[in-house]
Amino acid sequence: MGRIVIIGGGPAGYEAALVAAQLNAEVTVIEAEGAGGACVLSDCVPSKTFIASSDVVTGYRDTEEFGVNAGGLAAVSVDAEAVHSRVKRLARAQSADIHAKLIKAGVTFVSGTARLGADTLGHTHRVEVTPSDGDRAYAIDASTVLIATGATPRILATARPDGERILTWRQVYDLPEFPEHLVVIGSGVTGAEFASAYLAMGVNVTLVSSRDRVMPHEDPDAAMAIERVFRSRGMSILNNSRAASVERTASGVAVTLADGRVVEGSHALMAVGSVPNTGDLGLAEYGVDVAPGGYLTVDGVSRTNVPGVYAAGDCTGLLPLASVAAMQGRIAMWHALGEAVAPLRLKSVAANVFTDPELASVGVSQSDVDSGEVMARSVMLSLDGNARAKMTGIQDGFVKLFCSPASGRVLGGVVVAPKASELILPVSMAMDNHLTVDQLAHIVTIYPSVSGSITEAARQLMHHEP
Ligand SMILES: Cc1cc2nc3c(=O)[nH]c(=O)nc-3n(C[C@H](O)[C@H](O)[C@H](O)COP(=O)(O)OP(=O)(O)OC[C@H]3O[C@@H](n4cnc5c(N)ncnc54)[C@H](O)[C@@H]3O)c2cc1C
Ligand SMILES: NC(=O)c1ccc[n+]([C@@H]2O[C@H](COP(=O)([O-])OP(=O)(O)OC[C@H]3O[C@@H](n4cnc5c(N)ncnc54)[C@H](O)[C@@H]3O)[C@@H](O)[C@H]2O)c1
């Protein structure tokens, strides 16, 4: 069995390495930043840890309504340095756990950078490795190479982050204190999550949204419900507004919008998307196809056009989620090592936006249905009729369910609620197992529970005009 070389140690790379090691392959992972990659060290894990602190603050909202006198939100103070050091500590610990797991599995882990070398014209691929400890560069000949190099925050030439006032989401944890007034530029998932968390922590937030609503790629009812919550809690949201430039002023930042308006703040957070880390890998010289935007083109089993060279994760731009990256990486190794493997299925991938409330979704989308691409019946059930939601003070949220008009099969759903990420699983399971709304409706749920609204939505979809 040949040697496997994996460039990048994020979820795509490390999960692939674990599969390959389990199949007794000789595996080397080369990673520039640390085990777990950007996901663990600067993106997903730090942001969710930060949001966990903001959730604690949210717990003090409206306590009087429950008969608990905690002094209200005004009595809560948050220690930014303590929050940031917890974020960094947890990220480092998670990275160390992954490193230990890889070593235990027999994977060789190299700290450094790698790129494809000259074509050896044989059955191997040469990978050039530059160790980060200053040791001499060397080459490894591999039978299979997996490129799993992830992505990096997109930088606008007119709004260059300086790490002090103009920030990427990777730099916020180095601030000595929270911003007084944060202008978040970009209202995709990243922008919405940070805007939500900072708002909860008591920061003045202005969200610059280039479209007519926040989170344009999410379910419109859900995105609008969350936008209403943001506004009701005091966030200023500028719709249909594009930032043309961000500059430092004496006391903070000035964000100039494309229409000439200027928004002042103490800090700006740039959340305008990511670009794939594929520029320095020698791909073009090696003949690996790269799509416009720098993304690697792969098929359902993660193969590029060059035999033996696979790619997985954010560098492929397929669906930039840690869960998908990990599955793409595993599939690549199962395929490369001759295991029976089904191609990646994206249809039933669940996703969650960790705002307050959260937004979880799976399966067909409202836009698929509205455009006529998918035939579906749907029901949207507000949580204000749910007993558990009333008891726990949930004011905003709903469950939406889609089913096939003919068979009644569950095609997808959306949940807006606190901890929606934990509530979407029954919908995913129903979808994946081809359950009908009748079958879902017959499941006896806990009373009282928010998940009871999922089966109630299914009950409502049982009865319909032929
Ligand atoms: C703010 C934020 C929050 C997110 N939250 C979530 C979430 O809650 N849930 C979720 O599912 N997804 C989330 N995501 C998406 C998730 O982080 C990515 O989908 C995931 O990190 C992709 O994993 P990956 O392995 O492809 O790449 P990465 O995690 O980016 O890892 C790639 C690694 O390769 C290294 N590398 C690059 N080039 C080289 C080279 N030449 N040599 C060696 N190493 C190299 C990089 O330094 C990096 O460490 C979030 C993203 C962002 C930006
Ligand atoms: N909870 C999660 O799972 C999670 C969290 C964060 C990111 N992600 C993943 O990362 C992906 C990318 O999300 P993202 O939010 O980082 O990027 P994105 O590309 O989805 O959103 C960036 C937004 O910024 C806007 N924008 C660009 N230039 C602008 C300008 N000059 N002024 C104002 N707005 C501007 C874009 O129109 C876009 O809406 C998501 O689709 C998701 O898959 C997942």
From TrEMBL:
Residues 3-329 form the FAD/NAD(P)-binding domain. Residues 350-458 form the Pyridine nucleotide-disulphide oxidoreductase dimerisation domain. It holds the Pfam family Pyr_redox_2. Binds 1 FAD per subunit. GO terms for molecular function: flavin adenine dinucleotide binding; NAD(P)H dehydrogenase (quinone) activity. Keywords: FAD, Flavoprotein, NAD, Nucleotide-binding. This is Dihydrolipoamide dehydrogenase. It comes from Rugosimonospora africana. The lineage of its organism: Bacteria, Bacillati, Actinomycetota, Actinomycetes, Micromonosporales.
